[in-house]
Specification:
By secondary structure, the protein is α+β, with helices and mostly antiparallel strands. It contains 14 helices and 23 strands. A four-stranded mixed sheet has the order 21-22-1-23. A hairpin with a 2-residue loop joins strand 4 and strand 5. The structure holds ligand EPZ.
Length: 421
């Protein structure tokens, strides 16, 4: 299995380019099967989650060509409502295929999707939405069968779930009448999905707020779309730059998507400028004095993103003082901490949702294991800071969410190499 070998304490300098958002592209690709003609989607990150989603879409008949961050999807031959079960088990995000399948066929069969080890990841909120839309749901030997065309009307989510909101939108766009989705999640990736669907001819308003209104249309046509920048990838490299006290330019990015992250990092003492280059925005970090510990609580957007909780904890090991990390979204998102502690970090897990970190501690390189995408990223940052060599196993997790992380870091001076295949 592939590993990273990282020699820590290199100063990084230069520019890290940010890819299109994984958590937008993973919904826009399945949304394209709702059209009756091909779509061209650009700025798609070259990561394994996207490859799995493309294989799942091919398993129901979609014709997909990919070339250098661009995918062309011809939905003309999509003729099955039974996506490949094994492939779905590899990708929690594949749950968002169900909305489009119900809208297109009035039928969907699938098993519980898989994903990261960051919590139970139930799908009860998704099923609740479909029940509200009049869908008949049965479960036999671990396989769900959903039957019925989604009905318009008022839908109220159980909680602010990102993919459940996206499933509701995609299920409703072809339903005659008006659908109002209440208690909708408001992440920027949801607004990007709605933007894509509206370019296909859908009539969606309010995406990016907690109340979304959809006027059903009879058909949708293919379109072109450029996926928005990945705020989680950008935030990860921003934290890496601050943890190593390096001067890095990171982008393109929509700074507004990381307002609370910028505020918290500046509260720690980080120095971050926002610069304009060819009409696009970039973060530019500057050297800082000693960092101060600050508390965070992860929340739904625009709160502190749970996907940046683990990188931020690594940063807090390098900040003076105690910080409390309250992970309110997932109950199993501290897996990476065990590895951080063996590198010399000081932290106490108070509950499945709370960790207290004491800094500043010197980290020492050693062999460690990554077990989920963002936990893996946190361990890479720790290795960049640590004295000596770190071997990180489990690159299959990191490669799910970060395109060419080793190449991007090596290009700005990190001593990192990928060993094994
Ligand atoms: C999306 O997952 C993202 N994934 C996650 O990113 C992200 O961490 C999460 O939203 C929160 O922002 C994709 O978009 C593909 P939720 P999602 O439904 O939609 C509970 C990454 O690293 N819940 O908003 O699955 C759930 O367990 C990934 O890029 C239910 O109880 O998350 C969690 O506690 C990780 N029942 C909370 O809601 C349900 O039916 C929020 O989850 C669904 C969710």
């Amino acid at each position: 299995m592939a590993k990273f070998e990282i020699e820590g304490q290199q100063k990084l300098h230069g520019t890290i380019l940010v890819c299109g958002a994984k958590n937008a592209a993973l919904k826009i690709l399945p949304a394209s099967i709702l059209a009756d003609s091909p779509s061209e989607i650009s700025n798609i990150p070259n990561i394994s989650d996207i490859s799995v989603m493309i294989d799942i879409l091919r398993s129901i008949g979609a014709k997909i060509e990919t070339q250098d961050h661009v995918a062309t999807i011809d939905p003309g031959n999509v003729d099955s409502h039974k996506p490949d079960t094994d492939l779905m088990k590899h990708l929690r995000g594949s749950i968002v295929l169900i909305g489009p399948l119900l809208a297109k066929f009035g039928h969907a069969e699938f098993s519980q999707p898989g994903g990261c080890l960051i919590g139970a990841r139930p799908i009860d909120d998704h099923l609740d939405i479909f029940r509200q839309m009049g869908i008949k749901i049965s479960l036999k030997n671990g396989k769900y069968t959903l039957v019925g065309k989604p009905k318009s009307g008022d839908i109220v989510l159980n909680k602010l779930s990102v993919t459940a909101t996206e499933n509701a939108i995609m299920a409703a766009v072809l339903s005659p009448g008006i659908t109002c989705i209440h208690v909708a999640a408001a992440e920027p990736e949801i607004a990007d999905l709605a933007d894509f669907l509206n370019k296909m001819g859908a009539k969606i308003s309010g995406a990016g707020t907690h109340d979304i209104t959809i006027e059903g249309v009879t058909k949708l046509h293919g379109t072109k779309h450029d996926v928005l920048p990945d705020r989680v990838e950008a935030g990860t490299y921003l934290i890496a730059a601050i943890a190593t006290n390096s001067e890095l330019k990171i982008g393109p990015i929509i700074p507004n998507h990381l307002n609370i992250v910028l505020k918290k990092l500046q509260a720690c003492g980080a120095r971050i400028e926002i610069i304009d280059q060819n009409g696009q925005k970039y973060f530019q970090t500057r050297k800082h004095k000693e960092l101060k510990a600050v508390d965070i609580d992860t929340r739904t957007y625009p709160g502190f993103p749970t996907d940046l909780q683990s990188p931020f904890v690594t940063l807090m090991t390098q900040a003076q003082g105690k910080s409390q990390i309250f992970e309110t979204i997932f109950e199993g998102r501290f897996l990476y901490l065990e590895e951080l502690l063996t590198m010399g970090a000081k932290a106490e897990i108070v509950s499945p949702h709370i960790v207290n970190v004491s800094g500043k501690t010197a980290l020492r390189g050693k062999e460690i294991f990554s077990r989920d995408i963002r936990g893996g990223a946190a361990l890479v940052i720790a290795a960049l800071v640590a004295k000596g060599k770190t071997i990180i196993n489990g690159l299959e997790f990191i490669d799910r969410g970060y395109e060419s992380m080793d190449q991007k870091l090596k290009a700005v001076g990190a001593n990192i190499k990928r060993i094994g295949d």
